[in-house]
Specification:
Layout (H helix, E strand, L loop, with lengths): L2 E3 L5 H17 L2 H27 L8 H9 L3 H19 L6 E4 L5 E8 L2 E5 L8 H14 L3 E5 L9 H9 L4 E3 L3 H10 L9 E3 L4 H10 L4 E2 L8 E6 L5 H12 L6 E6 L2 H15 L5 H11 L1 E4 L3 H11 L3 E5 L4 H4 L7 E4 L5 H4 L27 E8 L2 H17 L3 H8 L6
Parallel strand pairs: 1-11, 4-5, 4-7, 5-6, 7-8, 9-10, 9-12, 10-11, 12-13
Antiparallel strand pairs: 2-3, 3-14
Helix pairs in contact: 2-7, 2-8, 3-6, 4-5, 4-6, 5-6, 7-8, 9-10, 9-11, 15-16
Length: 427
C-alpha cells in the first residue's frame, strides 16, 4: 500500500478522496437493499425464507427452545465464564449511565417535568453466519435492559440452520425470549414492518455489514435506529518512535479481520516505523485464519500516512472521525483534549481496541463512516424516549400569556394568540 505523506501538496485532497470513496462503496449497496425490503414488506415470511435460503442456506426462522437449550449445553465452561465476566462489567458501566427525571417549579408555581421512558420494543442485530459475536449480544442488549425495555428481540443469522451456542448463551444471560435465525436487509425489513411470524419492533440497533447498515437507513422513519451509522468497522492508530511495530501491526490485523470493507488507518511521524509495521503485517498475516479477508480490507481500504506534526495529526483524526482510535504514543495526554471526533479512544500502549470489544465495560457499537462527527456509541440513552410534562397555574398563564400573544401575532399565528387570550382573565 502506498504511503501518503503530509509534506506532499495534494495530501488533504488525497485524504478527502479516500474517505469519499469509502462512503460511496457503502452507499452503492442501497439499490439491492431497497428491492429486498420491498419484497419482505409485501410478501412477509415467504420472502424472508427465500433470502435466508439464498444467502445463509437456512430454512429455519425460529429455532425451538429445545434446540437452543441443547446448543447451550455444548458450550465450553471457559466461554460461559468469559461471557459472565463481560456481562457484569458491561452492566456495571452502563448502569452508571442512567438518567434522572427533571422536575422544576418556577416562581408562578408552573411545573415542568422531563421524564425518561424506555422504548417498548427493540430488535438487536447480532452479526452471524460466517462469524459469531456473543460480545455483540451483550453490547446491544445490556443498555436496553438497564433502560427498562420490556421486549428485546435478537436477530442473528445462522448458517445452514445452525446458531452459535455462545451467542445463544449470551442471549439467555440477557433474558432474551425472542430469537430469530435471520440476517441481512430482509431481517431488518421483517423487524421494521413485521410478518406473520415476527411482530414488528419500535427500534433496531446493532452493527452489521454494509448491506445491513444501508437497510437500517432505508427503514428509518418507519422504525427507529441508532443515531449513527454502525457499519463496517474502522480503526485509526497513531504511533511514535516508542511504539512496538509488532503490537501495532497486530492491532491493524485485528480490525481488518472483521470484514473486507473494514478500514484500517495508520498515522506515523516516522517513515522507517511505517515500513517496519508494513513488514510486520505481512509476517503476521500468514498465521491468521481469516487471511484473505484481512488482505482485501487492507489492500482496498487501508491507508498509511506519515504526518510530521501533532497539530496536523489531530486535524486529520478529526476529519476521519474514526470508530476506534488508538493513541499508541507516549504523549497521548497532549492529544486527548483536542480530539473531538471519534467513537472511542484508547489511550497508551496497553489499551488495545480488542479489549474494548469485549470486557472493559464500554460499548463496542460505535459510529462508523464519519458519523462520529455528530453521534456517539450505543448507550442507555438510545433506549429512552424523553417526554416533557407541563402544568400551568392560572397565575402562570396570566403572567406569561401576554408575551406569548405578542410573539404569536408577530409570527402570523393568530389562532395561537387567541387560544391563549381565551384563558386569560378579562380585566
Amino acid at each position: 500500500k502506498k504511503i501518503i505523506n503530509s509534506n506532499y501538496k495534494d495530501f488533504d485532497r488525497n485524504i478527502d478522496g479516500l474517505l469519499i470513496k469509502k462512503k460511496r462503496k457503502i452507499n452503492s449497496n442501497s439499490v439491492t437493499v431497497t428491492s429486498i425490503i420491498k419484497d419482505v414488506k409485501k410478501n412477509g415470511d415467504k420472502a424472508l425464507l427465500k433470502y435466508e435460503k439464498k444467502f445463509n442456506k437456512n430454512s429455519i426462522i425460529i429455532p425451538t427452545t429445545k434446540k437452543i437449550h441443547n446448543s447451550i449445553k455444548t458450550l465450553d465452561k471457559k466461554i460461559k465464564k468469559a461471557i459472565d465476566l463481560a456481562y457484569s462489567r458491561i452492566y456495571k458501566f452502563h448502569s452508571l449511565q442512567k438518567f434522572k427525571n427533571i422536575s422544576y417549579i418556577d416562581n408562578f408555581k408552573n411545573k415542568l417535568e422531563y421524564k425518561y421512558l424506555p422504548i417498548d420494543s427493540v430488535a438487536i442485530y447480532v452479526p452471524g453466519s460466517t462469524v459469531s459475536y456473543p460480545s455483540s449480544v451483550l453490547m446491544n442488549a445490556i443498555p436496553a435492559i438497564v433502560a427498562g425495555v420490556k421486549r428485546i428481540v435478537m436477530i442473528n443469522p445462522g448458517s445452514k440452520g445452525k446458531l452459535n451456542s455462545a451467542v445463544l448463551y449470551a442471549a439467555r444471560k440477557c433474558k432474551i425470549k425472542e430469537i430469530y435465525s435471520i440476517g441481512g436487509p430482509s431481517a431488518i425489513a421483517a423487524a421494521a414492518y413485521g410478518t406473520k411470524k415476527i411482530k414488528k419492533v419500535n427500534k433496531i440497533v446493532g452493527p452489521g455489514n454494509a448491506y445491513v447498515a444501508a437497510a437500517k437507513k432505508e427503514v428509518f422513519g418507519d422504525v427507529g435506529i441508532e443515531g449513527m451509522t454502525a457499519g463496517p468497522s474502522e480503526i485509526t492508530i497513531v504511533c511514535d518512535k516508542f511504539s512496538n511495530p509488532e503490537w501495532v501491526a497486530s492491532d491493524l490485523i485485528g480490525q481488518a479481520e472483521h470484514d473486507k470493507f473494514a478500514q484500517c488507518i495508520l498515522i506515523s511521524k516516522n517513515n522507517k516505523l511505517t515500513e517496519k509495521i508494513k513488514i510486520e503485517i505481512f509476517k503476521q498475516l500468514k498465521k491468521i485464519p481469516r487471511e484473505s479477508i484481512v488482505k482485501k480490507s487492507l489492500m482496498n481500504n487501508g491507508i498509511l500516512m506519515n504526518i510530521s506534526s501533532d497539530k496536523k495529526i489531530i486535524e486529520v483524526i478529526n476529519k476521519i472521525a474514526p470508530e476506534h482510535l488508538e493513541l499508541n504514543v507516549k504523549n497521548y495526554k497532549s492529544f486527548t483534549s483536542k480530539i473531538k471526533n471519534s467513537g472511542s479512544i484508547c489511550l497508551g500502549k496497553y489499551v488495545v481496541m480488542a479489549m474494548t470489544d469485549y470486557n472493559i465495560g464500554s460499548n463496542h457499537v460505535l459510529p462508523t463512516n464519519g458519523s462520529a462527527v455528530y453521534s456517539s456509541g450505543l448507550s442507555v440513552n438510545e433506549f429512552y424516549k424523553r417526554i416533557s410534562f407541563i402544568n400551568l397555574t392560572k397565575k402562570g398563564i396570566e403572567s406569561l400569556g401576554p408575551s406569548v400573544i405578542t410573539l404569536a401575532n408577530y409570527e402570523g399565528l393568530a389562532g395561537h394568540a387567541e387560544s391563549v387570550k381565551k384563558r386569560i382573565r378579562r380585566k
